[in-house]
Amino acid sequence: MNKIQVHLDQKSYSIYIATGLLQSMPEYVRQIPVSRTCVIITDTNVDPLYAQPAANLLSQHGFQVFTYVIPAGEPYKSQATVSQVYDWLLTENIARDATIIAIGGGVVGDLAGFVAATYLRGVRFIQIPTTLLAQVDSSVGGKVGINHRLGKNVIGAFYQPALVLIDPMVLTTLPRRELYSGYAEVLKYALILDASMFVKLQQNPLKLLSLSDWDWLAEIIGTCCSLKRDIVQHDEREHGLRRILNFGHTIGHALEAITEYAYFKHGEAIAWGMIAAAHISFLKNYISHEDFRAITQLLSCLEKPPIPRSLTVQQVLDAMSTDKKIDEHGLNFITLKKIGKAKIEIVEQHILRAAINFVVHEGL
Amino acid sequence: MNKIQVHLDQKSYSIYIATGLLQSMPEYVRQIPVSRTCVIITDTNVDPLYAQPAANLLSQHGFQVFTYVIPAGEPYKSQATVSQVYDWLLTENIARDATIIAIGGGVVGDLAGFVAATYLRGVRFIQIPTTLLAQVDSSVGGKVGINHRLGKNVIGAFYQPALVLIDPMVLTTLPRRELYSGYAEVLKYALILDASMFVKLQQNPLKLLSLSDWDWLAEIIGTCCSLKRDIVQHDEREHGLRRILNFGHTIGHALEAITEYAYFKHGEAIAWGMIAAAHISFLKNYISHEDFRAITQLLSCLEKPPIPRSLTVQQVLDAMSTDKKIDEHGLNFITLKKIGKAKIEIVEQHILRAAINFVVHEGL
Question: pTM of the entire structure?
Answer without folding.
Answer: 0.93
